[in-house]
Structures are given as C-alpha cells and as structure tokens.
C-alpha cells in the first residue's frame, strides 16, 4: 500500500476533522444545557425611603429538578423575601420554573446584585444579576393635617346684683310742688338736678337708705327740668325730663283750697307730673341695667 497516495492523505485529514468536531460537541453540550437567567427591577418606596428590587430567576437544566448551592446578595446585610431561595441542600425546585422575590436596599445605595448557583444531577450553573438605581430614594414626609382648634365656649355672664329702685316723692298743693326720692338701702347714690322755669337751680344728693325732696313755690305755668343721675358699675348715667306743675282742681283763683295735697305713688295715676317723674326714675334704671342710657363724663 502506498502511504503517500493522495487518497490516503485525504482519509487521514477527514478522520482528524471528525474527531475534533466530536470533541467540540462533547465540551459544548453540558455548558449550554445548564444556565441561570437573573434579572431585577428597582422601584423607590418613598414611604420607607428604600429601594425595592423585584428579582426574577429562571434556572434551566436538562434534569427535572435542581437545588441551590449558593444565593448571595449585595449590599451586605440585605435579604430576599422568598423561602424558595433558601440554600439548605435539601429543597428541590422545579426545573425551568421562574422564582421571584423582593430585596429591600437602603435609599442611599446605587445598585444591588443577586448571585445564584444551581445544581442538577446532570450539571451546574451560576449567574449574577445587577439592578442599577437612578438617583436617591428619599423618604417623603406626609403633609401634616392641622388639628382643628376647638371652639372656646364662653361661659354665660352672670349679671351683678342689680340696685334697688327708688320710690318717687311727689306732692302738689295749691301753691307748691315737692319732688324727691325714697332711695332703698340696696340702691345707689342718686343726684337730682332741678332747674325751674323761673331760672332757679338746685341739686339734691340722695344716698342709699335716704329719703329727700325739694319744695318749690308754684302757680299755673310753672315747670321744672328734672335731671336724674346715678353711677352704676363705675359709669354715670343721666336722664332729663320736664315736670309741669298742675294746680289741684279744688284750689280757688288765689291759690287757696281746702283739699289734701296729692302725694306718694297715687300721684302717678292722678297728676301728669308724678307720671313723668316715675317715667324718669324707672326709665333710667331700666336702661342703666342694659347700658343704654347716655353716658355723661
């Protein structure tokens, strides 16, 4: 046999190529049959101020099940919340099934990684996935809802003890008119100012518990401007009214008569002057209690 023949050389080259190709398939086959796919997506939890990474892992092999031989995370100290990533040498997971889990990372970090290594009865595979963070994840303070201010309840004001009201003194005779007050002990000091139609002026101060009056000569057409003043709770109140003298009906033209003078409370129903005086006194106290009477300095 001629070893140098062209046919011999061709056969040798073909056999060598076939052996090399078979070796290449033998080496590449196991590597491509086992691999892990790891991916992670990060979102910012603004309530906690942390990055939340949603990891998805798919271990692909040519056996029905596999076990983890390594599961590690960065940054150090972080964890993943799915027990399926536990490395205990016992737990078998279904091949080619996606396993997910969440990792919480401080908001100041810029990235995190998940490394997994899986073992099948037919081989092993290891892979690392990286999640990159954009910016910082900062905790947001929720807006503060203002606490409504309770409405203050104003306690009712209890009025002070009111002063006693004075009783009028009023008397008309055929030639005089008498005007004054009987001031009760629980009253206030009262000042009566008299100004007659003749121009005469008098002032009478009546303290609580006192009974005083002034008498004037009078004839038809005579009148008195009576100013009734009192100080209540530190404020002075006053009221003025005109009292006209009315001569009793039983007086003669000279001013003489035998009838009794008209006096006291009964005068309010008989003489217009008494009614006016009652109106002045009662009106003053009625309004003073309500702070409506005009104030005089």
Automatic annotation (TrEMBL):
Alphabetically ordered keywords of this record: Membrane, Signal, Transmembrane, Transmembrane helix
Keyword Membrane: yes
Keyword Transmembrane helix: yes
Secretion signal span: 1-28
InterPro entries: TAT_signal (IPR006311)
Record field: transmembrane: 266-288
Disordered: annotated span: 125-159
Protein name (Swiss-Prot/TrEMBL): LPXTG-motif cell wall anchor domain-containing protein
Organism: Actinoplanes nipponensis
């Amino acid at each position: 046999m001629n070893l140098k023949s062209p046919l011999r050389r061709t056969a040798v080259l073909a056999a060598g190529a076939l052996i090399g190709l078979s070796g290449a398939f033998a080496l590449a086959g196991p590597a491509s049959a086992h691999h892990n796919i790891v991916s992670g997506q990060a979102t910012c939890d603004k309530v906690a101020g942390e990055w939340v990474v949603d990891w998805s892992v798919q271990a692909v092999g040519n056996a029905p099940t596999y076990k983890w031989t390594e599961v590690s995370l960065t940054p150090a100290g972080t964890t993943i919340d799915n027990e399926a990533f536990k490395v205990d040498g016992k737990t078998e997971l279904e091949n080619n099934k996606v396993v997910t889990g969440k990792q919480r990372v401080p908001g100041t970090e810029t990235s995190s990684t998940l490394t997994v290594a899986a073992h099948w009865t037919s081989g092993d595979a290891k892979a690392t996935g990286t999640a990159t963070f954009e910016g910082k994840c900062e905790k947001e303070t929720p807006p503060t809802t203002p606490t409504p201010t309770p409405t203050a309840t104003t306690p009712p004001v209890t009025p002070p003890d009111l002063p006693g009201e004075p009783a009028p003194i009023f008397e008309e005779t055929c030639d005089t008119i008498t005007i004054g007050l009987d001031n009760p002990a629980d009253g206030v000091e009262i000042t009566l100012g008299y100004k007659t139609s003749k121009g005469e002026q008098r002032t009478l101060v009546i303290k609580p518990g006192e009974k005083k009056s002034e008498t004037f000569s009078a004839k038809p057409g005579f009148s008195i401007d009576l100013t009734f003043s009192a100080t209540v709770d530190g404020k002075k109140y006053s009221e003025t009214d005109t009292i006209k003298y009315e001569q009793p009906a039983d007086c003669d033209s000279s001013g003489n008569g035998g009838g009794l003078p008209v006096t006291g409370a009964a005068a309010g129903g008989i003489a217009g002057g008494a009614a006016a005086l009652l109106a002045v006194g009662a009106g003053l106290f009625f309004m003073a209690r309500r702070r409506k009477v005009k104030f005089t300095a």
